[in-house]
Protein 1
Amino acid sequence: MSRMKIVRILIYVPACVVFLITVGVYLEYIYWAGFPDGFMSEKERAEKMLSTFFCWISIFFGFYFFRLAWISPKKNNSRKIVFWSYVYLVIILITYLVKVFLFAGLMDSRGG
């Protein structure tokens, strides 16, 4: 396989990773929120809201990465892909810090 074909395939990797992260966040924090009886604690409600916001931003980034990968054979977009990948990593870090530090004092549904 030539080097150009490998590069063209690797350009799609950030988009696939973004969509996998989105599916994981959706399944962990949105789909199972309130399971099994529908009760949602303060923490679950806050996590669901933050996760929904994060999923929408991730979907935007995923489609943007696919667009960059699609037009990259015509243009050299490697710097854009690297820059927006770093921006997405910063968004992941900010989301994680909000979840850890701001939601730490919220009541969850643990008993006892």
Protein 2
Amino acid sequence: MDRLYAPIWAQLKERGEVSITANRALHPRIIKAVTKETWLDIVYKLQISPQHATLRHMRKGSVITFRLTKHLAKGIYINPQDI
């Protein structure tokens, strides 16, 4: 069974930016859940190595916009043996 916020993470990896509309009371929960999806996706980290992905979010009214940026990580490499 897929996790509830996995589709948001999948679109974010594909497009680099995703905007969703939700009740403002749920914003902290959604932000935390999408952030957790980034932590859980070790395969993605290996695929983009030696790059590093940074997740940012912006809230405006009831809209949350997530942006995923990639940059070269100096001295940070993930080895499959470390997993």
Protein 3
Amino acid sequence: MLYDRSPIYAITHILIGFIAVWYPIIGIGGLIYQVGQLVLNIRAFPFEGKIRKGNNIYHTGLKVAEMGLGYAIGTLLHNRLKVSSN
């Protein structure tokens, strides 16, 4: 793991990306949220109820990449479901 954090956060980012295939506003909101944290130089840990100072492009990129992974998985599944229904 690149950062010392609970796996729930990576799972959440992947799920956001996955759901964004069908509901793009979720993905847009996720991106705005991540960029907002970067601009404010904070990291939010909602499952722990904490906000910590300090953020960087590498950390934000990791979270966005996790969302991208979920989006890729969702897109593959979505396309697979379209092909099998034809």
